[in-house]
Amino acid sequence: EVQLVESGGGLVQAGGSLRLSCAASGFTFDDYAIGWFRQAPGKEREGISCISSSDGSTYYRDSVKGRFTIASDNARNTVYLQMDSLKPEETAVYYCEADNDLIQAIWLVTTGSGDGMDYWGKGTLVTVSS
């Protein structure tokens, strides 16, 4: 069974940092792009970053460039999202998602909206206070 388990969410002040983790299992990790998405109440799910597990290439939505960093530890089948300089409007449930079509993943996190990835986790809540 494919599983993606997010952790690391919590309450942080505006300008603060959090590091999210995604533990993956049930598929060949190196064959997939792993992405981070977020969804605030009443809003469509938004892709913010993804990484190619095979070559380490990273991609970001413009709104998080320079503040968020995605990284992978292939030996542990784990992807991380380091989030710095967090803003109150970024309060959302953050989801880890996987797709073996890298081009699809890139489009979803840089340009598109909604969720078209193959697999997804249950999410971890990030609350950024003012």
Question: Would you write up a description of this structure?
Answer:
With 130 residues, the protein is mainly beta. It has one helix and eleven strands; from the N terminus they run E-E-E-E-E-E-E-E-E-H-E-E. Strands 2, 4, 5, 6, 9, 10 and 11 form a seven-stranded mixed β-sheet that branches. Strand 7 and strand 8 form a beta hairpin. The N and C termini lie far apart (40 Å). The relative contact order is 0.31.
Topology record:
Layout: E1 3-7, E2 10-13, E3 18-25, E4 33-39, E5 46-52, E6 58-60, E7 68-73, E8 78-83, E9 92-99, H1 102-110, E10 119-120, E11 124-129
Parallel strand pairs: 2-11
Antiparallel strand pairs: 1-3, 3-8, 4-5, 4-9, 5-6, 7-8, 9-10, 9-11
Which characteristics define this entry?
single chain; 130 residues; mainly beta; 1 helix; 48% strand; globular
